[in-house]
Amino acid sequence: EQTAAIAEIFDELHTPFIGNQVSYNMLNREAETTGLLDVLDAHHAGLIAYGPLAEGLLTDRYLDGIPADFPLHRTNSFIADNREAYVAKLNALNAIAQQRGQTLAQLAMAWLLRDPRVPSIVIGASSVEHLLDNVRVADNMTLSAEELAAIESILND
Ligand SMILES: NC(=O)c1ccc[n+]([C@@H]2O[C@H](COP(=O)([O-])OP(=O)(O)OC[C@H]3O[C@@H](n4cnc5c(N)ncnc54)[C@H](OP(=O)(O)O)[C@@H]3O)[C@@H](O)[C@H]2O)c1
């Protein structure tokens, strides 16, 4: 609702409005459920996703468990009481990534970038190794209908 109101003001002022940076990843899909993606699309603006790896959860680091002291971002606070269920989801997603010859991080980014309403993502890697791992997502950005359905089923389970 706020973005729709802001976009109207931008229109009135003839101010270019090209994008909105919000938290969006496989685990936090508020941008879909609130209608934000649709509002942006209606105004020919894109969603720039920050936290695309859910602050690191959507990598191969937490496949054996999410430590009690993991600093969950407020947008992922729903995970706190369901850590085991989310670890199971991460492992199921990782299996799909492996079938595609990708890392879980690469799958998570390909999933975001498949949507033309998401023109860019802001990744938070602090090592060259992680950065290179992440940019290799460009090697395989296409997800089949079967893969998307399998991902949807894991996320909604
Ligand atoms: N989260 C927010 O509230 C927020 C708000 C506005 C803007 N931003 C900006 O958005 C950017 C990303 O945000 P974020 O840090 O929340 O998001 P993120 O990209 O979802 O997660 C970053 C975490 O993932 C790890 N990681 C990245 N690539 C990896 C790989 N290939 N394998 C294993 N681990 C990997 C990083 O570890 P290493 O550090 O060890 O590489 C780091 O712990 C930052 O520049 C931030 O300033 C964030």
Give helix and strand order, one letter per element, not per position. HEHHEHHEHH
Number of strands: 3
| Rg value | 16 Å
Task: Please state how the strands of the largest beta sheet are arranged side by side.
Answer: 1-2-3
Strand content: 5-15%
**In CATH, what is the homologous superfamily?**
NADP-dependent oxidoreductase domain
Characterize the overall form: globular
Q: Structural class of the secondary structure composition?
A: mainly alpha
Number of domains: 1
The biggest sheet amounts to: 3 strands, parallel
- Helix fraction by DSSP (H/I, runs of at least 4): 40-55%
Cα distance spanning the termini: 29 Å
- CATH architecture title: Alpha-Beta Barrel
Which whole number gives the mean pLDDT?
A: 95
Number of helices: 7
> Ligands in the structure?
NADP nicotinamide-adenine-dinucleotide phosphate
- Low-confidence spans: none
Question: What features would you describe in this structure?
Answer:
This protein is mainly alpha-helical and 157 residues long. α4 (83-99) runs antiparallel to α7 (145-156). It is built from seven helices and three strands, in the order αβααβααβαα. The chain has a single domain, classed as NADP-dependent oxidoreductase domain (TIM Barrel), CATH 3.20.20. The radius of gyration is 16 Å and the shape is globular. The chain has helices at residues 2-13, 30-33, 36-42, 83-99, 104-113, 128-135, 145-156, and strands spanning 19-23, 46-50, 120-122. 28% of the residues are buried. Strands 1-2-3 form a three-stranded parallel beta sheet. Residues 50-56, 59, 61, 73, 105, 122-127, 130, 133-134 line the site of NADP nicotinamide-adenine-dinucleotide phosphate.
